């Protein structure tokens, strides 16, 4: 299957070729024909599946064909609602790339910055509006945005909008959009409230489901490091000494933790920036741009700030702290290994504080993450067991136990020697730290290019 088989028009095929797109991902192959038939669509797909292109490409085609028939004044014909500013920006970039030969204009609006330039662009006229709910409602209330000509409504990352408390805002926007429209609804998960919202706004939708949230891409090589909380910064510095790691997205649970990691890495001479809710929009966008163009090698992020980040050729995701929601692990590591490319996901686990989170992840993904023992700062199995026994003694209601058993080096993958890709070592123990008696890291690999 190629994009030529999807009955796409020449201007879009030309743009896709320039972007290096040749073969559609499963969700693109399934969703694009339905959307081109003007059908409502319910898509259940996690991040990294090529979802943005799955709706952007057919929207551009339908609007371009409509534009050829009707030469009316510019008005907003398609509205895409999305939960975060970063995701809104990346969706806009996708529309610009795929639609560069169509003459269609898109605009992204979000809060945290001056509304002046956004209002000026609206006055000049746009075909496609990508917006976060809060700023959109503000501009609607000020009568700068009019939705009476909307033909297509797209809700992206609907479950995240629920998590972030935007559902009521979304319902207010929907109430202002014409009932006679095409609606596309995308969500990684379908909790009851999201299912009810979908049922209320979709008319006989086609359903597309790809890679449920409990699954991790086969192209992502996962490894687990047992390491004490105090040694995590040393392990991270050691891993990032490997120059084969061109880009790394590092996750922490808190904003304070993200800033602390940046300071530690900067002291070690590694270029790093943080992206989280306490940063201004300009600072967040600057950090993201620097990471994309590789001015910054390491980006440290909290989960909400990172949702929707789409970086081509991101080789490594590192869970510096394990998330307390197991589905979040799947979303995190889905930043790499996108659209068929390979990637590496490394997870640091403190045996005392994070073992329960790890158990939940193993249960969700229905397999155990292979353990990497050959590193300079290992929390030995015995030490981990001792910590957990102490924890059980002090908190009788919490039972002890290891995280998924004793792996003894983990499941081997072809060509990986049972160790995570992306590390090279001379077999001498790296830093020479005596605690681990560890051998050096081995099995360097490069991630192949991935497209969103």
UniProtKB/TrEMBL annotation:
It comes from Mucilaginibacter rigui. Pfam families: DEAD, Helicase_C. SMART domains: DEXDc, HELICc. Residues 441-452 have a biased composition (Low complexity). It comes from the Bacteria. CDD domains: DEADc, SF2_C_DEAD. Keywords: ATP-binding, Helicase, Hydrolase, Nucleotide-binding. Residues 1-29 form the DEAD-box RNA helicase Q domain. One of its GO terms (molecular function) is helicase activity. The lineage of its organism: Bacteria, Pseudomonadati, Bacteroidota, Sphingobacteriia, Sphingobacteriales. This is DEAD/DEAH box helicase. Residues 234-385 form the Helicase C-terminal domain. Residues 401-440 have a biased composition (Gly residues). Residues 32-208 form the Helicase ATP-binding domain. Belongs to the DEAD box helicase family.
